[in-house]
Design brief:
Helix content is 62%, strand content 14%. It is α+β, with helices and mostly antiparallel strands. The protein has a domain at 82-165: Alpha-Beta Plaits. It has a five-stranded mixed sheet with strand order 2-3-5-1-4. The model is unreliable at 1-13 and 15-78 (pLDDT under 50).
Length: 328
């Protein structure tokens, strides 16, 4: 009985040990699986466990950097970033000549000319010009005041767009993406197999492309904030209205007015006749033969329709002419 009891005790100890070992293995597998799932990246999921683990650390660093960036942004009172655009119409006696003065004024203020279109003038038209200029945002008011000295500002419209929040969010995303690229480059440096290297290179390439796109967008936004865009149109003042002529004030002036009117009317009729004369000749050449042919046919039909004269017997005196009652 004692030997059997001891044997049963040994079996129970072994069974407990096996169950404890199984639980330890299951717990270790679950922990490893959870770590791999949370740390894997879509760009390198086909790689081995080391690359997946590196991408998981990079993803975790993205979240940490993004949180840190947002916290720093929300906690710092950044200056407002505003994009200013506007249109302006400048009325001047000589628009094409004033263009040179406008360009000099803009460049002196630290700006530049992005587009320039000029329409040459003539004897009746002084011409016009259109310019798209970029001036420092802090100099917009000063530039507009200086333009008033070159002519009359007939229309002016300015609009602003506050992009402070968008700029701060983009800065935070850029910082997070820079950390992510650095992490993946480190993973690439420690990769040993071909699959790991290819997966890490693809991840680095994708993250670097995203980073360059964000940096380009941030640079463009900063340029729009720093330099405001103004579209300038240079035109000449409208021509003065002609004086209203109430008509002749005396008989000689009325006679002269009538004579000029007659001459003008005859001249216009002569022009009309000159235009119609070739057509009238052409129509006459066509219509004349047709009219003659129609008359000839009418005569033939009339001759055929008339009755033949009755024969006169021999010795019959001709009929006496009718006697007029006034002959008596």
């Amino acid at each position: 009985m004692t030997g059997r009891t001891r044997s049963t005790g040994h079996h129970r100890v072994r069974l407990v040990a096996l169950l404890a070992g199984a639980l330890v293995l299951v717990a270790g597998c679950s922990a490893a699986g959870g770590t791999a799932d949370s740390g894997s990246d879509g760009g390198a999921a086909a790689g081995s466990g080391s690359v997946a683990g590196g991408q998981g650390a990079a993803a975790q660093s993205d979240q940490d950097a993004g949180t840190t960036g947002d916290g720093a942004t929300s906690g710092t009172a950044a200056d407002r970033q505003v994009i200013t655009t506007g249109t302006l119409t400048l009325v001047t006696e000589h628009p094409t000549s004033t263009v040179t003065d406008v360009v000099t004024l803009v460049e002196k203020a630290g700006g530049r000319v992005d587009a320039r279109t000029e329409q040459a003038g003539s004897a009746d038209d002084p011409g016009s010009a259109t310019l798209t200029v970029r001036v420092p945002s802090t100099q917009v008011s000063a530039v507009i005041d200086a333009l008033r000295g070159l002519g009359t500002v007939s229309t002016l419209a300015l609009s602003t767009n506050d992009v402070t929040a968008a700029a701060q969010d983009l800065d935070a995303r850029i910082k997070a993406q820079q950390v992510s690229v650095a992490r993946m480059e480190d993973v690439l440096a420690h990769a040993t197999t071909t699959a790991d290297i290819m997966a890490a290179e693809e991840a680095v390439r994708q993250r670097q492309s995203d980073l360059e796109a964000m940096v380009s967008e941030r640079t463009r936004m900063a340029d729009q904030v720093a330099l405001s865009t103004l579209t300038l149109t240079l035109t000449a003042p409208p021509a003065p209205a002609a004086d209203d002529d109430s008509g002749p004030s005396s008989f000689p002036s009325a006679l002269a007015t009538g004579w000029h009117s007659l001459v003008s009317t005859l001249g216009e009729l002569a022009l009309v006749l000159g235009v119609l004369l070739p057509w009238l000749v052409f129509l006459a050449l066509i219509a004349t033969p047709l009219v003659l042919l129609g008359r000839r046919r009418s005569r033939r039909r009339a001759a055929q329709a008339a009755p033949a004269p009755a024969p006169v017997a021999a010795g019959t005196p001709p009929p006496a002419p009718p006697v007029s009652p006034f002959s008596l």
